[in-house]
Amino acid sequence: MSLLEVDAVTKRYGPETLALDSVTFSVQPGEFVAIIGPSGAGKSTLLRCINRLIDITAGDIRFAGVSVPTLRGSALRRHRIQIGMIFQHYNLVNRLSVLENVLHGRLGYKNTLQGILGLYSEEEKREAVRILETLGLSEQMYKRCDQLSGGQKQRVGIARALVQQPKMLLCDEPIASLDPSSAKVIMDTLQEINRSTGITVLVNLHQVDVALHYAKRIIGMNRGRIVYDGAPHNLSSDQIYHIYGSEAGELILDLKERYAA
Amino acid sequence: METTLTSGRIRVRPRTRANIVLHVTLIVLVLLTIYGLATLDTRNINIFTAFGDMLNNFRIVLFEARLKNLSWLELFRELMITVALGLITTVLGAIIAFFVALFAAQNLAPRRVTDAVKAVMAFIRAVPTVLWVLFFAVTAGLGSIAAVVGMTFHSISYLVKAYAETFEELDEGVLEALRASGANWWQTIFQAVVPSSASALLSWTFVRFEINFSVAIAMGATAGAGGIGFDMFMASAFYLDLRELGIFTYAVLIFAILLEWGATRLKETVGVKRQA
């Protein structure tokens, strides 16, 4: 059974803008999927529809057999717990320590009062520390997040998502603000998580070469529509050209050749 | 477009409607000032003698200050009453304002709610503190209770605006991240909103404490709330004792400086507390 089924999902902003235009695809457990496309293609909107940070206009999304668009209150929280999210700008609380930020991933499991006071069980703390160790952040545990480098912040973001014990990770441009070597560390980490724990990874990327290198499957989007869905090796230059439109075409083809070489 | 004057010089500032209005307003104000001074009724007071007397009064207040009707201990007690009035209204105001401000920040509450809360707060703020105190004096009687309620009331409206604007400057992404991990609204408030804005909230609260301290002095006299303001009123209007007034002025000044110093220290401590 598919872990995620996106069925004819449409999202409108006002009467004019069509962000998603009957998008349909499904994801099997353990897949590593990259979504590529130009800015404004609807990639971020699509990810946010999956964990209901954005409400869809029409269609249906089923996650682990549960229909997502109608979820409310605690059922919606239970749905979000199962999906970890990683952001381009990390979205950490800068004034709190690394460990406190990681433990935020457990808030969905806590009642309101425990969450307000930040009361976590020893088991949860141990798990958070273990994840930080595997991500090489054990020395930064008590540092404030604004003292970290971009690559370290993104690893804290990953740790916060992992401590949720999610079935799937949604990554919204995780390496767009990082230098090449930090970007490689982050992508390797995501790949390692996908391989060793079997957590499904759905990642929005700007960099086509990175997508081709890491993903087992590529979804190409343009203007709210899926224009390509398949294995990376089947993606031809013409199709990349089609995804990115005429203007960016030549630049992308350049990258593609370098990747092939 | 006209860029040069008839003399051939280049105009630096554009001749816009706003500029013309500004110039006309300034000219009218200057003319009114000249007219006002020229037609002033001086009641045969010589301006130089009057100015000299004023400086002499300042000299007495500042350099011949001494206590007469109160002991030093009583002075301290009166000062503390004023401080307490400022402090209790600030603390009560801050606690209530924090929760109200959550519903006045557009990134935390629905637009309809924030608009309503902001409108009510703007109305309360538009009326001066003194008028609120007199308003509550109708039911509570002129005295400390009316002063506390009225000052708290105005503090709330001031702090709600300040707090809500602080909340609205928060990084939207952080709130999104916590929502995405399944956190509910109250958890998001206390785990993301409060830690991110704590030092700004504290500094706004201190600004309000300084305001409330000076308002408390005025309330001591006008609303009969007691404290050093009342003593100043008695010394100046009843006993005409400028020398005692001088001591009261010094006491207030010294305390205001201490307050400022303490506020700076506390803000530094909170700012770096977590960096260790």
Approximate strand percentage of chain B: under 5%
Mean pLDDT of chain B: 89
Shape of chain B: extended
Morphology call of chain A? globular
Distance, first to last CA of chain B: 61 Å
* Main β-sheet description of chain A: 6 strands, mixed
Main sheet properties of chain B:
none
Under CATH, the homologous superfamily of chain B reads: MetI-like
- By oligomeric state, this entry counts as heterodimer
Secondary structure tally, helices of chain B? 10
CATH class bucket of the largest domain in chain A: Alpha Beta
CATH homologous superfamily caption of the largest domain in chain A: P-loop containing nucleotide triphosphate hydrolases
How would you describe what is shown here?
The complex is a heterodimer of chains A (261) and B (276). Chain A has helices at 43-50, 73-81, 98-103, 112-117, 122-134, 150-162, 180-197, 208-214, 237-260; strands at 4-13, 17-27, 32-36, 58-63, 66-67, 83-86, 168-172, 200-205, 217-222, 225-230. In chain A, 40% of the residues lie in helices and 23% in strands. Chain A folds into two domains: 1-82 and 168-261, P-loop containing nucleotide triphosphate hydrolases (Rossmann fold); 92-165, no CATH class. Chain A has nine helices and ten strands. The longest helix of chain A is centred in the C-terminal third of the chain and has 24 residues, at 237-260. In chain A, a hairpin with a 2-residue loop joins β4 and β5 (66-67). In chain A, α6 packs parallel to α7 and α8 (208-214) packs across α9 (237-260). Chain B has 276 residues and is mainly α.
